[in-house]
Amino acid sequence: MDIKRVKDYIYWLYYQYLLITCSYVLEPWEQSMFHTITVTVFAMVVYTAYVFVPIHVRLAFEFFSQILGGQPESTV
Amino acid sequence: MANPSAVCNGHLHHHHHQKQNNLLKSGIYKKNGITKGLKKNGISNGTLYKKKFVEHFEQAPMYVAVFTFLGFGVGTVFGYLRDFMRAWGLEKRNVAAEREQQKDFVPLYQDFENFYTRNLYMRIRDNWNRPICSVPGPQFDLMERVTDDYNWTFRFTGRIIKNVINMGSYNYLGFAETDVNALKTVTVELQKYGTGICSTRQEMGTLDKHVELEKLVATFLGVEDAMVFGMGFATNSMNIPALVGKGCLILSDELNHTSLVLGARLSGATIRIFKHNNMQSLEKLLRDAIIYGQPRSRRAWRKIIILVEGIYSMEGSIVRLPEIVSLKKKYKAYLYLDEAHSIGAVGATGRGVVEYFGMSPDDVDVLMGTFTKSFGAAGGYIAGKKDLVDFLRTHSHSAVYATSMCPPVAEQIIRAMKCLMGLDGTTQGLQRVRQLGKNTRYFRRRLHEMGFIIYGNDDSPVVPLLLYMPGKIGAFARRMLEKNIGVVVVGFPATPITESRARFCVSAAHTREMLDTVLNALDELGDFLHLKYSRYSKSSHPELYEETRLELED
């Protein structure tokens, strides 16, 4: 029974996505095109976040701790 | 205008509906969306309104507007893509086009203007113009139709979907019926007069039935005289030009019906629009009109006329008649009240908004209404002082040139009105009006409790339920039809672009079981489509709510 509930919930999420982006009204080939574009953009966003966000967060942390702490860490 | 009585009004509301009003307890000043109506009443509320006037125009959360625009954006992008494909011949063109020999002429069909119709409306077109094949009572039969090419053409399968619950017809009092006993007099008149009039009122089209009907309408409304016309739309659009002309000023509500707008434009008078049901805006316009006069010559306006409707059919709001009448008396303007949806539907005995507010019909200069909605017939009337109606009999285009109302229809109105007034010896009319009031209040209360955003006054039988996103319009209507309920959904040109809605018309002929069926279907569908945007509702199960309170107190 649990599998059915999970499947229903995932179908419901997919349906919400269709309604919100108004791809519910598109013809099937238009829907495929739209899904491809969306998934591609989403994948690119995820990849960029994965690659760049940790580095930027670390640099920002170092920058701010240098200002607040005032200790010369970078000369080592 | 400081509002001490606005708080007073909030308290009154709190006492009468204790279950419903946690929202109003915690400071009506914070919650602008729901209390817009209460706030603007101001000091006059205490003296002009005999009972509370509660309207709701809640705003949805911001993300809803964002998603709506996103949805329209996607639709537009794909619309451009399809137009491009059609222009370059990659796809067949289904719209009207000129013949080959006329390609070099001035274009007959302006392609760009129909962008919205072609690309967005066509995709969900199967939810409109559905042919029905029975009387539009509380239930009706629908002809099933399917489309093979995404709504460009339809074909009927031959099957008939029976007993679809009708939540879209303007059948407020349930007079659209085929019961033989009820229609006895109509049958007699049909056999006596036939159906055709074949003439205009001025020539040979005035029958004794019309005279009888006009006298009855005048008695019903409590005015001196009335005149009936064959078509409701034509009543507005053809009579306003007879009453005003160049050099007059028309102050018309923002959300007036097309017939009023058309009549106003045809008349040639200057038109100024005031914000919907907003008395400050109207007063400002009146003051400016009187102080500054006509635009260039600065002469006084020949006439100032205010055009309002009793119930606005897209919003479900009721006009603020007491305030408008006091304004009109102060600034000496005329009032034209279009009671198309409110005659028969509001008021203790069904006599419209004038009775609903406890006012006298002499306060309104021109009372207009239609017989299409509450009386199950067709046509319109204009009522008022005898001089006004006599003037219209000779000067109105509709009175002079249009074919008059046909006799069986006139008899249907006569029998419905007699039933309403109690002249046929039964209390059926009053029962219908009371049943409509009960149904309206029940339906609206349950929808508020479930968490939907509903617009309009608590007493209006027109209930707009907001859908917002364009994708949901089609999904909602189709799923409701699968559950055997017929609804009317409205989208962009008729409503603002972000506020598409489903409009329910409650009828006195709906039984409690039908309303419960519809409400349960709406509950399910509201969860499935995620339509319950209201931030001010209680949970959907009031019994459970009470129970947990008791348990905690234990």
Automatic annotation (TrEMBL), chain A:
How does the record classify its membrane topology? Multi-pass membrane protein
What is the name listed in the Swiss-Prot or TrEMBL entry for this protein? Serine palmitoyltransferase small subunit B
Q: Which GO terms describe its biological process?
A: ceramide biosynthetic process; endoplasmic reticulum organization
Q: What does this protein do?
A: Component of the serine palmitoyltransferase multisubunit enzyme (SPT) that catalyzes the initial and rate-limiting step in sphingolipid biosynthesis by condensing L-serine and activated acyl-CoA (most commonly palmitoyl-CoA) to form long-chain bases. The SPT complex is composed of SPTLC1, SPTLC2 or SPTLC3 and SPTSSA or SPTSSB. Within this complex, the heterodimer consisting of SPTLC1 and SPTLC2/SPTLC3 forms the catalytic core. Within the SPT complex, SPTSSB stimulates the catalytic activity and plays a role in substrate specificity.
Mention any one GO cellular component term assigned to this protein in its UniProt record: endoplasmic reticulum membrane
Write the lineage as a comma-separated list. Answer: Eukaryota, Metazoa, Chordata, Craniata, Vertebrata
Please name the source species.
Answer: Burhinus bistriatus
- The transmembrane residues are 9-26, 32-53
Which molecular-function annotation in GO is an example for this chain?
serine C-palmitoyltransferase activity
TrEMBL record, chain B:
E.C. code: 2.3.1.50
Kindly list the GO molecular function terms attached to this UniProt entry. pyridoxal phosphate binding; serine C-palmitoyltransferase activity
Q: Name one GO cellular component term.
A: endoplasmic reticulum membrane
**Matching Gene3D superfamilies, A to Z?**
Aspartate Aminotransferase, domain 1, Type I PLP-dependent aspartate aminotransferase-like (Major domain)
Q: How does the protein associate with the membrane?
A: Single-pass membrane protein
Q: In which pathway does it act?
A: Lipid metabolism; sphingolipid metabolism; Sphingolipid metabolism
- Record-linked PROSITE patterns: AA_TRANSFER_CLASS_2 (PS00599)
Cofactor field: pyridoxal 5'-phosphate
Q: Name one GO biological process term.
A: ceramide biosynthetic process
**Enzymatic class:** transferase
Q: Which residues cross the membrane?
A: 60-81
Provide the Aminotransferase class I/classII large domain boundaries: 162-522
* Pfam families associated with the record: Aminotran_1_2
The places in or outside the cell where this protein is found are: Endoplasmic reticulum membrane
Q: Where is this region: Disordered?
A: 1-21
Q: Keywords for this entry?
A: Acyltransferase, Endoplasmic reticulum, Lipid metabolism, Membrane, Pyridoxal phosphate, Sphingolipid metabolism, Transferase, Transmembrane, Transmembrane helix
What's this protein's family per the entry?
A: Belongs to the class-II pyridoxal-phosphate-dependent aminotransferase family.
Name of the protein this chain belongs to: serine C-palmitoyltransferase
Q: Which gene encodes it?
A: Sptlc3
